[in-house]
Amino acid sequence: MAIDKSLQTGSTTMLLLKLLEEEDLYGYQMIERLQQRSNNIFALKAGTLYPLLHSLEEQGLVQSYEQTAETGRKRKYYTLTKAGQKMLAAKEQEWNTFTGAISRVLQGGGGIATIQ
Amino acid sequence: MQPSSRAKEYVEQVCGEIRWQKAHAVVREELYAHMEDQREAYLSAGIAEEEADILAVEEMGNPLETGSHFDNLYRPHMEWGVLLFTGIIVAVGMVMRIQLLRETGAEIVWESEFLILAFGMAVMIYGYKLDYTALFQHYFSGKVSGVIWALLCTLAVYFVFFAGWHAVNGSMGWILVNGNDIIFHYLGLLWPVVMCAFLYMQYQKGASGYLYSFTFLLFTLCLFEGSSSAFFLLMGTGFFMHGYALWKNWFGCSRKWGLTFLLFPFVLIVMIIRYPYRLGRLYAVLHPFADPVGYGYASVQIMTTLQEARIIGEGGKNLQYALEYIPNLMTDHILTAAVSHWGWVSLLPLFLAYGMLFYLGWRACYRVKSQAGKLLVVTVSALWLLQIAGYLCNNFTTLQMGWYSLLFVQGRYSLLANLFLLGLVLSVFKTGAVQKDEWEQNRNFEEKQVFLKKPIPQNGD
Lengths: 116, 461
What we know:
The complex is a heterodimer. Chain A is built from six helices and three strands. By secondary structure, chain A is α+β, with helices and mostly antiparallel strands. Chain A has one domain (12-103): Winged helix-like DNA-binding domain superfamily/Winged helix DNA-binding domain (Arc Repressor Mutant, subunit A, Orthogonal Bundle). A three-stranded antiparallel beta sheet of chain A has the order 1-3-2. In chain A, a hairpin with a 5-residue loop joins strand 2 and strand 3 (74-80). In chain A, helix 2 (12-22) crosses helix 5 (82-106). Chain B folds into two domains: 5-74 and 440-452, no CATH class; 80-436, no CATH class. Chain B is built from 23 helices and no strands. In chain B, helix 1 (5-17) runs antiparallel to helix 2, helix 9 (182-201) packs antiparallel against helix 20 (371-396) and helix 9 (182-201) packs parallel to helix 21 (413-430). The chains are: A alpha+beta, B mainly alpha. The A-B interface holds A 23-29, 45-48, 50-52, 54-55, 57-58, 60, 66-77 and B 14, 27, 29-31, 33-38, 59-63, 65-66, 69-70, 73-74, 366-367, 433, 440, 444-446, 457, 459-461.
């Protein structure tokens, strides 16, 4: 099913940080991993991914280092920093609040707090 | 493997959108690596080579959009905070100095004040434009460093064994200018950049590289022995920069072993204090009142002035007293003068600005990827801290020595030298996020890890 891109915008940072929380990855691995986990819903272009990763590095949320594979090819791995971990926790909380509210509205219900 | 012509075309289109040339390398390398991974995935899925090339490039997305995103991200970075607080120090220092001069009735030569500031700005911009990478990676090649080492070694041997530091007051006769060891005194402010470049040339060259750099420091100290201020400044800065390199495991040798060597220069202090007049000064540091009209005179007068200083306001011994009894008050003891006239609180704006300058500099240093750049920031920071510390000793303790002017506040040559160093440091921050060392680009990860004795992570392919 095709998903409106605007729904994904804004959550990509959180998704990338989440992937990096588990292990250090290089760009190609991130795109693959995201695609697999989302059942091909999130097909991120490399042209979108790298500027975003560089921007996260600039903000100090991730750090990069180089590693040469057995094949001799250089990989640029990204790793989550402490600031990145904090940001991820905040983003996750924000996302849960947001999706919870959307679900409640879609289900036609309303919390007592909302009625008050 | 060479990238395909399509991949090259794509990457060039992306880079065409990025105005800052220095960022091209970091973007190019990563995009090529990604396309290569993508292409291999298609090939292993059974797609023909030609088709795999085309699909790999198509998967990347719009090159103009990508380039535009990178262009927004990568701009030469000016560390405005560092520049601002340097400006504040210069301004606060100038106000303090000129106000004190007015109080003492001295004439203020405004043309000279502004001329030196204009020169200082020009020198700083030159340092910024020169760029530290040019100094470290182009001008200071392996051969050049070898020649400088040999020259320094020859001069050091000549001074130690033949010249014998014979001249007046321990200074070397042939470089005396108006009776002062002025050349070595001011050269001492710029020489650490050469020491820094030399140390960087030994990066990851093992214990022998460390010893090579260490001998460079020793020869430097032998050469600068004629000027005690330059000697102590270079010894302290050399200690910090080599200590930093050991701490970061640049040489793969034991830190304790390296530090043991590093303590050796302190033995050279014996050389520098062996002259009777220096021994006299040393005695005066410990017992200033033993010779209150001789070696201990300045210390006694400073202590007397400070004893009656207040937190806010003029002290019991006022500016006129200080001017009359403390030698070279307005050049060597301007902080003592400020405390006697306005109280201790008058130092607060200046030292808050110094604190902010160092804090912002260290914070900016985290972004720097190049080891050469980090070493330069550490070296210049150490040099500046030692200049301030020495000046504080001259102003508030019994340790009196011919020292440098207060950082960014006084002096002509020292102000110019320090502003040039500021320009170099700003050039490190300018390219901090994109500039990598040549060493990093040429050596593979396993070699580095084996050298650094770290386990090689089993990560991915």
